[in-house]
Amino acid sequence: MVDNFSGPALSSAPGARPHPAIVMADEVADSAADQLQQEMGAEIRRVAGADRAGVLRALMEADPVALLVRSATAVDAELLRAAPQLRVVGRAGVGVDNINIPACTARGVAVVNTPLANSHSAAEHTIGLLLAVARNLAVADSSLRAGQWRRSELTGVEIYSKTVGIIGFGTIGRLVARRLQAFDARVIANDPYIDPDSAARAGVELVSKEELMRSADVVALHVPKTPETTGMVDARLIALAKPGQILINAARGGLIDDAALANSIRSSDGPHRGAGIDVWDNEPDVHSPLLELPQVVATPHLGAATFEAQERVGREVAGYIAAVLRGERVPTAVNAADLYR
Ligand code: MLT
């Protein structure tokens, strides 16, 4: 949603180039580039977001008006200094923990993201990880390919009639709850920002984190990464877990104490049966003790990686970028409240 903004449209800005430069770091759907080329005649330069030196070089050479990223590019003050004409940072996805929002606001740079466009894919990936852990699918697949028939060892557990605890009852948490209710699971949740009546209308009881850990057979994390949530699933909470618990994290790396969870899975008296983990600290250079355990199903940040979600995300973020460059206000911009004061 956009409305008028007093900022100048790009074409009327002094010294404006006929073909505005846009740097796309990370893999973003072609639909975003196509739309920006068609609507604005933009010149797109692509670069790998994890290649810090490459991103800085691309920004200095192209001097872009827009930068489009996913989670691999750390958008900080140094990066902003390399792009003096930058007007907008587009995040093709939800999480903005890789973007220094105050630094963008101080420079008058809008930060736009797509909070809903990949939610269904993220919710479906959570369910996929859960079923894979509950039914030992990764080990079943790799052992059969290795010529082993380990049928009796690979007995799993059902989701039916289990208690599932969701930490973070926002858009994705709610989609996951609905899907798990279809398995006839009881769903409880923890979220200090949600009104208990609204959770009750979704058939979900709000409880404390401690109670959730004690009573849930499955715990799924759906919180953003903030100072409040970083490391929230620590050794203390892990020790409280109900025996046999499965923990799923398709939200953000850094929320869980990986070493404590690995110990809980590994040791015979530890409460955890296994875990499904899609997101990691320090991606893509992942070093976690969880990767050594067969009870853990690990994926490389694939929650939003579907053709449909990427297409939707690409179109939506390109629309917001074009609006900012036309001089319009984007009220859903992450820093709208401070930027449009
Ligand atoms: C997101 O925050 O939307 C996810 O990290 C998706 C992604 O960028 O791949």
From TrEMBL:
SMART domains: AdoHcyase_NAD. It comes from the Bacteria. It holds the Pfam family 2-Hacid_dh_C. The keyword NAD applies. Residues 136-307 form the S-adenosyl-L-homocysteine hydrolase NAD binding domain. Keywords: NAD, Oxidoreductase. InterPro entries: Ado_hCys_hydrolase_NAD-bd, D-2-hydroxyacid_DH, D-isomer_2_OHA_DH_cat_dom, D-isomer_DH_CS, D-isomer_DH_NAD-bd, NAD(P)-bd_dom_sf. One of its GO terms (molecular function) is phosphoglycerate dehydrogenase activity. Its EC number is 1.1.1.95. SUPFAM superfamilies: Formate/glycerate dehydrogenase catalytic domain-like, NAD(P)-binding Rossmann-fold domains. Gene3D superfamilies: NAD(P)-binding Rossmann-like Domain (3.40.50.720). The keyword Nucleotide-binding does not apply. It is an enzyme of class 1 (oxidoreductase). PANTHER family: D-ISOMER SPECIFIC 2-HYDROXYACID DEHYDROGENASE FAMILY PROTEIN (AFU_ORTHOLOGUE AFUA_6G10090). Belongs to the D-isomer specific 2-hydroxyacid dehydrogenase family. This is D-3-phosphoglycerate dehydrogenase.
